[in-house]
Specification:
single chain; alpha+beta; three-stranded antiparallel beta sheet; three-stranded mixed beta sheet; rod-shaped
Length: 255
């Protein structure tokens, strides 16, 4: 029978806006769920749908070629849905699972349970010779250009399989949210003094001031205030300048 295709729309990342952090209600935790939703949908499809169909389709002793074909189909569906988010994908065999993760991530996600892939129970056969334990390991994982179909090949043997994967690069993911503003840098050194500007135009001539008064006097005189607040007149010459205080308390100079 034909295997069911993964038709669930899991283009969660490509449907986000160019600024997902600015969407109403979008939190860091919700954004992380968006990035994991595609991989979880693939995992659920493989474990709940694909493996059940493989149980009915495959023989009691599954061949490595059939397993490689099942993984290849799952990878093709995942690539078409945009689950890889524009990054290269890494694969490994660990604890009975084929696991995957996007390049740069730390967490491995389960892609296919080897124990769950089994055929119908057959008749009991004759006891055979004891053979060597079979092994499965991951060989090379090559990232191909967009549009290249994914493939899985076995460069090992039927008992010691070495799977080599070719996975096409997915579309470019949505732009992440803008990070916080960085701290201001230290003030830089003062720059060199600029060149002197050109001399400005000559201003207009000001108004004529008041005419001064020429006074004949013997020697020089000056006023100052001493430490007690007294106004002190100092002069040179033989006679003091003619200063007096009138009835209103004003200092009068008669010349």
């Amino acid at each position: 029978m034909a295997l069911t295709k993964l038709t669930t729309d899991i283009s969660y990342i490509s449907k986000l806006s160019d600024d997902p952090g600015g969407e109403p209600g979008m939190t860091p935790a919700l954004l992380k769920e968006k990035f994991d939703a595609g991989g979880n949908a693939i995992k659920n499809f493989i474990n709940n749908t694909l493996t059940a169909e493989l149980d009915a389709e495959l023989s009691a002793r599954i061949s490595f070629g059939a397993l490689a074909s099942a993984i290849e189909t799952a990878l093709a569906d995942a690539k078409a849905s945009g689950a890889f988010d524009g990054r290269s994908v890494e694969l490994q065999h660990d604890e009975g699972y084929i696991k995957w993760r996007r390049e740069g991530e730390e967490t491995w996600r389960e892609l296919l349970s080897l124990a769950a892939v089994k055929g119908d129970k057959g008749e009991k056969g004759d006891k055979g010779d004891r053979g060597d334990a079979a092994t499965i390991s991951i060989g090379t994982v090559t990232t191909a250009s967009q549009g290249t179909p994914p493939s899985v090949t076995n460069s090992g043997t039927g008992a010691d399989a070495v799977f080599n994967f070719i996975i096409p690069q997915g579309p470019t993911g949505a732009q992440g949210a803008q990070g916080p503003k960085g701290a201001d840098g230290a003030t830089g050194a003062a720059g060199p003094r600029g060149i002197q500007g050109e001399r400005g135009e000559k201003g207009e001539r000001g108004e004529r001031g008041f005419s001064g008064v020429a006074v004949a006097a013997e020697g020089l005189f000056a006023f100052n205030i001493d430490a007690d607040g007294h106004l002190i007149l100092s002069y040179t010459g033989d006679s003091a300048p003619n200063f007096s205080v009138n009835a209103s308390g004003r200092l009068i100079w008669t010349f």
